[in-house]
């Protein structure tokens, strides 16, 4: 019997697997694809994701393969990141294929088992009902009463204590567990292609709005460009095939040129459909990443939000699996991450509205653009898009700092344990905390770098704070 099965070896599933293994939990990842994807997909990591990787000692290979850019875009309008209060005030341009490769290498190094070429097809509670699974067997498996979940796969059943669906926007786990996915339908479809250009624009990152729609030509890596185009009033039905010629024709209509595109590597589409799982936890079944929220890629937030879901869930699930914390700790995952996902949906909807065609939106963009040029507005929006302003009720993230002994605060989070700074004595028997001296203030920092207690709250509150988190 497995302790935890993760469905999906995308960025979210791999990050979660790393977190669980770091905490000593045995974990099995089941992935439908026989080989890692060759699609480039997402284009970058935000400052908070870079901090998260730093807090686990995983950042260096990402920095070595990526390229820092001082800004990103909000609805296509420039958004400066260089003044943000972080060690990493930039967008690290690195495509998803590379991110997944680096995460998978780290997961394997930690001892995560990844079973590729296997698809999850069903869920049922244990003990299994006699005969064939009933249509709502998955929902029953997800119910609080079920003690174990049997995961049906194309390679046979797997029994597990906890199941996490990191299986993307069309999540089978979400559907089988009967979790609602409410939201708003698509208002536009964008076509994208990774192509070579005989006649590229001079700018490395070109984003333009024309009376016919929006287009961008993005230079993520040498040798090819990402071309994205949407056309006023054009949506493409899900079932319709889209090819290189459709991309070229739409780009010519919107941009007036095809930049001499040829040799496509990947052609795809995306929409601004925005949906969020009503519950991130349903008994022994949890959801993270795109399985829990889908939205347009505006602002490049999907992968980043998924990584940070995993970072919030991993240490909590590990404590529960090891019997060190009550199951209620898992509810804080929903309580803390659902509002974050809801805010991402909201700001991507706002970006969609700001990208719609027409003179009224043109006028609105002028005003929003002027506002975004002011330091306060830049900071507000940049903190939101990059996730640096996220606070979990108990407190915001604690920024990195240099310590008198020559180490950095984040380095002390690499074991995945909470940090107790400058508190003398043994605060709670048996608590696995990293003690830190010479910090300058008394703090309890959670394994995900968020504040759990500070001196001004009083010593009694420390015991209360330590109990659920460690
Ligand atoms: C054009 C584009 C640009 C983007 N740009 C950005 C960006 O710049 N920044 C950003 O943060 N995000 C971006 N995103 C979003 C980002 O790609 C997603 O948010 C991210 O892939 C989500 O990761 P995930 O691990 O949650 O899900 P996925 O990456 O979808 O991974 C899910 C995995 O589960 C597997 N799976 C599915 N069903 C099953 C099953 N039944 N059994 C077994 N395995 C299964 C799949 O094969 C897949 O490997 C972009 C998306 C697009 C389309």
TrEMBL record:
Q: Which InterPro entries does the record cross-reference, listed alphabetically? A: FAD-bd, FAD/NAD-bd_sf, RIFMO-like
Provide the GO MF annotations for this entry: FAD binding; oxidoreductase activity, acting on paired donors, with incorporation or reduction of molecular oxygen, NAD(P)H as one donor, and incorporation of one atom of oxygen
- Pfam families linked to this entry: FAD_binding_3
Q: Where is the FAD-binding domain?
A: 3-347
Q: Where is the signal peptide?
A: none
Organism superkingdom: Bacteria
**Which coenzymes or cofactors are required?**
FAD
Keywords recorded for this protein, A-Z: FAD, Flavoprotein
Q: What is this protein called?
A: 3-(3-hydroxy-phenyl)propionate hydroxylase
Q: What is the lineage of its organism?
A: Bacteria, Bacillati, Actinomycetota, Actinomycetes, Streptosporangiales
């Amino acid at each position: 019997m497995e302790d935890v099965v993760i469905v999906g070896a995308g960025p979210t599933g791999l990050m979660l697997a790393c977190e669980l293994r770091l905490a000593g939990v045995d974990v099995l990842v089941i992935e439908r694809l026989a080989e890692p994807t060759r699609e480039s997909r997402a284009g970058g990591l935000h400052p908070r994701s870079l901090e998260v990787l730093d807090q686990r000692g995983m950042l260096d290979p990402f920095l070595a393969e990526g390229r820092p850019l001082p800004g990103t875009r909000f609805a296509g309008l420039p958004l400066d990141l260089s003044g943000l209060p972080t060690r990493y005030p930039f967008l690290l341009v690195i495509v998803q294929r590379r991110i997944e490769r680096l995460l998978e290498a780290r997961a394997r190094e930690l001892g995560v088992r990844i079973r590729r070429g296997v698809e999850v097809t069903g869920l049922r509670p244990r003990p299994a009902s006699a005969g064939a699974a009933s249509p709502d067997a998955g929902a029953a498996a997800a119910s609080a009463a079920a003690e174990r979940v049997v995961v049906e796969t194309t390679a046979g059943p797997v029994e597990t204590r906890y199941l996490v669906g990191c299986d993307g926007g069309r999540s089978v786990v979400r559907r089988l567990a009967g979790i609602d996915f409410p939201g708003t339908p698509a208002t536009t479809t964008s076509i994208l292609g990774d192509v070579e250009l005989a006649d590229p624009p001079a700018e490395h990152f070109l984003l333009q709005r024309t009376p016919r729609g929006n287009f961008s030509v993005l230079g993520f890596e040498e040798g090819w460009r990402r071309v994205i185009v949407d056309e006023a009033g054009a949506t493409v039905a899900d079932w319709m095939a889209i090819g290189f010629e459709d991309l070229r024709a739409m780009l010519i209509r919107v941009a007036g040129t095809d930049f001499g595109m040829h040799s496509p590597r990947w052609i795809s589409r995306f929409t601004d459909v925005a949906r969020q799982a009503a519950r991130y936890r349903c008994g022994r079944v949890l959801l993270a990443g795109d399985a829990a929220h889908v939205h347009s890629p505006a602002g490049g937030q999907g992968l980043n939000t998924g990584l940070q879901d995993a970072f919030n869930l991993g240490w909590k699930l590990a404590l529960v699996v090891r019997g060190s914390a009550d199951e209620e700790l898992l509810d804080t995952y929903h309580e803390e991450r659902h509002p974050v996902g809801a805010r991402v949906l909201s700001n991507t909807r706002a970006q969609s509205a700001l990208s719609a065609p027409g003179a009224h939106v043109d006028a609105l963009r002028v005003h929003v653009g002027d506002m975004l040029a002011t330091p306060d507005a830049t900071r507000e929006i940049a903190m939101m898009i990059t996730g640096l302003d996220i606070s979990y009720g108990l407190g915001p993230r604690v920024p990195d700092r240099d310590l008198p002994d020559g180490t950095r605060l984040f380095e002390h989070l690499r074991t995945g344990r909470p940090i107790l700074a400058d508190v003398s004595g043994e605060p709670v028997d048996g608590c696995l905390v990293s003690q830190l001296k010479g910090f300058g203030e008394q703090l309890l920092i959670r394994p995900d770098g968020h504040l759990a207690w500070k001196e001004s709250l009083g010593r009694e509150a420390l015991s209360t704070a330590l109990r659920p988190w460690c």
